[in-house]
Amino acid sequence: xxxxxxxxxxxxxxxxxxxxxxxxxxxxxxxxxxxAADAPVETFDFDVVIVGAxxxxxxxxxxxxxxxAKVALLEKHNTVLLSGCALCGGxxxxxxxxxxxxxxxEDTPEQHLIDHMRISRMTANPEIVAAYTKLSGEICxxxxxxxVEFRLAQFALNHELPTPRAHWTQIDGADAGGKPxxxxxxxxxxxxxxxxxxxTVGKKLLxxxxxxxxxxxxxxxxxxxxxxxxxxxxxxxxxxxxxxAMLTQYNMAHFESLGYAPGATGDGINMGADLGAILxxxxxxxxxxxxxxxxxxxxxxxxxxxxxxNGKRYVGEHSEYMTTIxxxxxxxxxLGWLLFDSAIAEANGWTEEVLADALSKxxxxxxxxxxxxxKWIFVDVDAMTAAVEAYNAMCEAGEDTAFGKPAEMLLPLAxxxxxxxxxxxxxxxxxxxxxxxxxxxxxxxxxxxxIAGLYSAGDDAxxxxxxxxxxxxxxxxxxxxxxxxxxKNAAALALGE
Length: 497
Ligand SMILES: Cc1cc2nc3c(=O)[nH]c(=O)nc-3n(C[C@H](O)[C@H](O)[C@H](O)COP(=O)(O)OP(=O)(O)OC[C@H]3O[C@@H](n4cnc5c(N)ncnc54)[C@H](O)[C@@H]3O)c2cc1C
Known about the structure:
The chain is of the alpha/beta class. 35% of the residues lie in helices and 21% in strands. Strand 5 (149-155) and strand 6 form a beta hairpin.
């Protein structure tokens, strides 16, 4: 039986939000995770245990419960409102939705899959992507049917996603973020028999003599070890953007943060890896290209010139993040330079004061000639001079033959002084790497076979994004869809179907 003190829904309703801030502020989660896994003070029996109540976990719970399984959903916080699901920007990328149909937009899961694979540079797993695109419309419609409103958006600049497919949640005509996702999902979970165990941190998978997963040890709100026996376990703890040590290991920790879900500390990935789960794409993540120190605005201006450490232009400066993220990752040391002259500075409203402030912080280089600027930033003079000359010629011709930047953004670097600012990736909001799964969301072990009884979905698993993020709404849409697949398959295994 469930621990009445911490697990029942009655406990949650009163304490959810107030406790969350306090817990995060006091580092309660981290402290809880450090406690030793002693002998269990209590043991529970379930068919399916799901670790992490976010986008994937809540959908997995709904699906497994609907299939007839007895389900436990473990969540380390005392709320689902600290999940990436709740903290996200509020986009779900979905095809053939009611919202699209009402707007007269024709779209199909098949076209969605092709676009997804293209933007991932064909590094995503097409079977996993197909499982997502097939369910994406249904999932988006589920929220619409519950009263969530969406605005449709399209990534237009590079024509990377020609079809408006990103559905952004709305309240009173304004973007509403991810809260409507999390609130509707937990409300639906509460209408089922799923037992939600808040303040319960999944710690260690349990296996039988043959290596099949048969449960998990967790830590409850009192720091005591509790044991969940189960016929199947789903890991959906949200990847590792909040785990500084893991980010350091993959060279992604030292950049500036745009925010991440605090509970996403890689627990699921590490638990799976302990059983030999294969990990992949661990060094790829949603790291936006930024100007160091935010000295010239939040995002790099598209009417500048970007070159790498070798002095070569490497990206259309106007591009969407789907292009600039992989581009910056592919440069030597994952670094670039943003170059501009006095006229471009003026066009962007970067005043003498702004530039002087950036110079005084050591975050901007200034020189009277392009050659001197190259020397100052340790870039090959001939290569950078050639890049600037080629770019200026394209500006004069009004056509960017290299990267297709629109003519109105082509401003030459001709009026000294000249400047260079450091471009680098942000710290990840979302990590792409994790456990390798198959299209049934079974976790693949070191023998390249599924680990019996173990499933994963959401950002703990890899294969959905591959090496590039296929557009706002993929993490949520893909996590939810794969969560459904995991819930269904885990329930079928548990119920012997
Ligand atoms: C600022 C920001 C904006 C974003 N915007 C978008 C967007 O607009 N669209 C989009 O598609 N994606 C967006 N994302 C990414 C998206 O949030 C994630 O891809 C998605 O939430 C992943 O779902 P998940 O189920 O894997 O993880 P989550 O939704 O994060 O859920 C994981 C849950 O597991 C819990 N947990 C962790 N460890 C344990 C443990 N050991 N035991 C128990 N529970 C545990 C966590 O507390 C959390 O509640 C954004 C992310 C951020 C940070």
